Amino acid sequence: MKGYVGAIDQGTTSTRFIVFDARGTVVAVAQKEHAQIMPQPGWVEHDAQEILANTYDVIAAALARAGLTPADLAAVGITNQRETTVMWDRASGEPVHNALVWMDTRTEGLVAALEAEGGQDRFRATTGLPLATYFSGLKLRWLLDNFSGARDRAEAGELLFGTIDSWLAWNLTGGAQGGLHITDVTNASRTQLMDLATLDWDEDILAELDIPRACLPEICSSSEVYGTCTGILDSVPLAGILGDQQAALFGQACLAPGEAKNTYGTGCFMLMNTGESPFPSNRGLLTTLGYKLGEAPAVYALEGSISIAGALVQWLRDNLGLISDAAEIEALAASVDDNGDVYFVPAFSGLYAPHWDASARGVIAGLTRFADKRHLARAVLEAVAYQTREVLDAMAADSGVAISELRSDGGMVVNELLMQFQSDILGVPVVRPKVIETTALGAAYAAGLAVGYWQSPAAIAANWGEDKRWAPEMGEDRRGELYGKWHKAVARSRGWVD
Description:
It is a single chain. The protein has helices at 48-66, 108-118, 124-127, 136-146, 150-155, 164-172, 185-188, 203-209, 244-251, 310-318, 329-334, 373-399, 416-426, 438-450, 457-463, 476-493; strands at residues 4-10, 14-20, 26-33, 45-46, 73-80, 85-89, 99-100, 159-163, 182-184, 194-195, 200-201, 218-220, 223-228, 237-243, 260-264, 268-275, 286-291, 299-306, 343-345, 363-365, 406-409, 430-433, 466-470. It is an alpha+beta fold. The strands form seven sheets. It has a seven-stranded mixed β-sheet with strand order 17-18-16-15-21-22-23. Strand 1 and strand 2 (14-20) form a beta hairpin. Helix 9 (244-251) crosses helix 14 (438-450) and helix 10 runs antiparallel to helix 12 (373-399).
């Protein structure tokens, strides 16, 4: 067996290629950011061709840094920002428009019209998802509605739809010269077009949304040999695909029902493994696919999605200029003892789980002459922890499982002030793994399992190791006081958009 497995980690702000060894240790990594295109308030786009070019660049750079060639890789996997939507020409490979990013809100009108006809939960029983601008099916509908002839061309199979995994897989396996048009069950479950029970596109929903099946990718498992790459990864098996949050669940070895992880990235996403049956939520969570390994039964998850987490630190840096580097926020926030009664609700694209309120917008509450940039920095970090508490509370109430610890990953887990406050406001330990690149690691595990590089999921569980643990230090009265103020601030963010 060849010595390494590669993973493409295509995220909201950057693309990385990471090479792992059999112990799940990072051997080499390369990363490159791409532009955030915002044509008007609420609209967020990416250039899919820029993402593809960056993918090629980071693959080449990571392999060169490790002194490796494609021949050294047993397989490659893909993990991706999930709901971001691309439509492209099958013959030329050219996208018809910039990719519509998961946080884009231009489908608000479509959501409102569908809700008026059948309520926010009209597709939830089938898809596990409420109506929201978040999911990719309505983004595809917007593209079909807004480009002349697009629906007819999609019906004829001339235009192809995909989330970023599909776009990369198609190009890596030949593109216009026979590239594979595929997605996996985890990404398909985020379109609001797939039936959770059958793991196939739902004909009734396609008909209601006027979406041609001919433009949709084939739904595959998360771990199987889909085909062989060409070009930059010539002859390497493409063998794993997972949406980024499901990849983190897998990479964190949350393989038993009740095990949960939280990823602190651009947004914040908590997933709990619920086993081989979909678990409906009554408290604003999403029922989603966790993963599917080859022919084995699918594993489902409950998810709480928070749209703005690390992106709020970037906003503090780029829009307000209060810091010059994201890493500065920890020291600035730690320079005061508390938040000075300042609360920041980052509802830039509305509130996601557990509220699902598209009318909300961001607010800073509790300002006095006493407050300064230090308190605002602290309020930014605390907002991430409060939002996570809301999701964990909903998850515990839905599942009946009291979470005894929270496994954390993503870029923000290096912020020790945030991790300690997270443990304090939750009242349970927060644990950081030895390998925090769990999103890419999950994709590598899925690919490696498919080709026998790892023999079983038990080998994945054996690789997991704890790096650091934070235990709660805050008293229950103080925890309740702070969390109560957070709820007051959330109430003031709602109903802003008419």
